[in-house]
Amino acid sequence: MKKEDIRFGDWKRILFGDAPLEFTLEVLVRTLLIYFIFLLVMRLMGKRMNAQLTITELAVMVMLGAIVAVPMQIPNRGLLPAVVLLLLVLFLQRGLNGLALKRRRVEVVLQGDVTVLAKDGVLQIEKLQEERVSHEQLFAQLRAEKITHLGQVKRVYMEADGSFSIFRRTPAVPGLSVLPEQDDRLRQEQPQAPNQKTCNYCGYLATPTDHTGARCRNCGQEQWVTAAE
């Protein structure tokens, strides 16, 4: 389109573009056809596409969106190439899923693996850094499960799809509070274990000699706080 063709107030061009008005009706037909074909392809891909997506599934969703956009809006593009591409992506996705089912290494490469973020009330700092999960992001997940301190945690897993699985520790032991620091009133009401100290960075529960100026055995930090219970 040339610069001279762009005129402010040209509502026909703004609303319908350069395509004839008849193409507006054709867009409705194209959209309906692509919509039902798209639903069919999504159904054939399986129930996982309706759940929280893995990396490969997210890539497929982006590709599907790019494939169906062009034939619905551009008059000189037919529907058949888009249908062929949709079927190709379908077979690619199903083929990769089948291969991942047979070979564990392929599954890990394509979809990722589970990561242990907390173990027996102690944060696994290296794993948090690898997954780029902050303390507050993890604590928010714990608070959503009505967990108030790390001593109540047996395991926290970060699944391959990015979701969190949390297992409680029974019986609970004193641990680092996960309540927000801004909520002073709630923190003051939280029961304390006066004779127990915990690392304020990773939640390691100290022995009586650990917190007398020594570094944390788990993360190397020197900040000790009274454990919550």
UniProtKB/TrEMBL annotation:
UniProt keyword Membrane, yes or no: yes
Bilayer topology annotation: Multi-pass membrane protein
- The protein's name is DUF421 domain-containing protein
Cellular localization per UniProt: Cell membrane
What InterPro entries does its record include? DUF421 (IPR007353), UPF0702_alpha/beta_dom_sf (IPR023090)
What is the protein's major site of localization? membrane
* Matching Gene3D superfamilies: bsu07140 like domains
Q: Which UniProt keywords apply?
A: Cell membrane, Membrane, Transmembrane, Transmembrane helix
Any signal peptide, and if so, which residues? none
Q: Does the keyword Transmembrane apply?
A: yes
Mark the transmembrane ranges: 27-46, 53-72, 78-96
Q: Which residues form the YetF C-terminal domain?
A: 102-170
Give the protein family.
Belongs to the UPF0702 family.
